[in-house]
Each structure stands twice: as structure tokens, then as C-alpha cells.
Amino acid sequence: MVSVADWAVDKGDAVLVALGLGSCVVVVLYDPETTVGGLAHHLLPSPSLSQDRDKPAKFPETGVPFLVERMRQAGAAPRRLRARIVGGASMFAGLGSTSVASVGERNIFATREALDRAGIPVVGEDTGKDYGRSVYAFLDTGRVESRSYAHGVRLV
Question: What is the mean pLDDT of residues 108-131?
């Protein structure tokens, strides 16, 4: 179970889970040859938006390189990594605050940008819209599911 602003790396038959995503974005990285996978639960698009910068997974620009390094230490090859991203909903769009409403979109953009800088292709995503999701990453096969109460299960 990976909480907000946290991360996990494992391999084999492990399942990495992040529950209750709203505007947060989860990035799942996977090396199919070693079955090493990692999940980072990004809360904000930039460290400039927070005084507490102690957790690297809190932001895509620090979380993606951090996760890649932890996966490399676990035996993954950065050149084989593939990414899937989930979340970034506009959960508060109806409240009228454009800055709050755009946090999800900004998280998606910042995550894509961090992955691009790392040279990791995005091979699947379930992002945006106006509803929450949970993520399940099955490391034995690389299968990633985005689950929503209102919209069911979607393979990412």
C-alpha cells in the first residue's frame, strides 16, 4: 500500500496499490525482464508549491528520478523501464477556483515532463476527468489496473 507522497519498489508476485487518487498522479514504472516495478504517489506538480519537501515522491520532478534509482538498485535496467500514469482528476472543478481545479492537470503535465526527461516512454494512462481512482500494479505480469467505483476497472 503506497500512501500520498510515498513510493514502493518490489518484484515478482508483489502487488503495489495506491487508493483514493483525486488530483494526485501515480506513476508506475516496470522492467519486464526482471519484473521489478515501482510506484510513486505524486501530490503536487512542483516543490515550489510546498514548504515540506522532505519526501521526494511528493513531486514528479524529484519522484521520478528517485524511483528510477531505487529500481536500478533492485535490479531494473533504466533503459527497459516503461511507465503508466493514473490520476490527475479535476475533483474540485465545480468550486470555481481555477488554481485548485487545475492541480490535477498540472500533476499530469509535470509527470509526463519528468518521464520525458528520464527517457521513459508512457505506454498507458488513465488520467484527467472528474472522478477518483485507485491503482493496482501486478508485478508478476506488469498488469496495471485503474479502478473507479463509478467507472469500473480499466487496464492501463
Answer: 97
C-alpha distance from residue 13 to each of 8, 61, 64, 109 (Å): 14, 29, 23, 31
Q: List the chain domain ranges.
A: 7-149
3-state secondary structure 30-75: EECCCCEEEEEEECCCCHHHCCCCCCHHHCHHHHHHHHHHHHHHCC
Is 4 considered catalytic here?
no
Would you say residue 4 has pLDDT above 80?
Answer: yes
pTM: 0.92
Contacts of 61 (CB under 8 A, 6+ apart): 46, 47, 110, 113, 114
**Cβ distance 128 to 23 under 8 Å?**
no
pLDDT attached to residue 98: 53
Q: What is the DSSP letter of 94?
A: G
Looking at 1.10.287.90, 2.60.120.200, 3.40.190.10, 3.30.1330.200, the CATH number of the domain 7-149 comes to 3.30.1330.200
One of 5, 18, 24, 135 is an active-site residue; which one? 24
pLDDT in tens, 25-37: 999 999 999 999 9
pLDDT confidence bin for 99, thresholds 50/70/90 = low
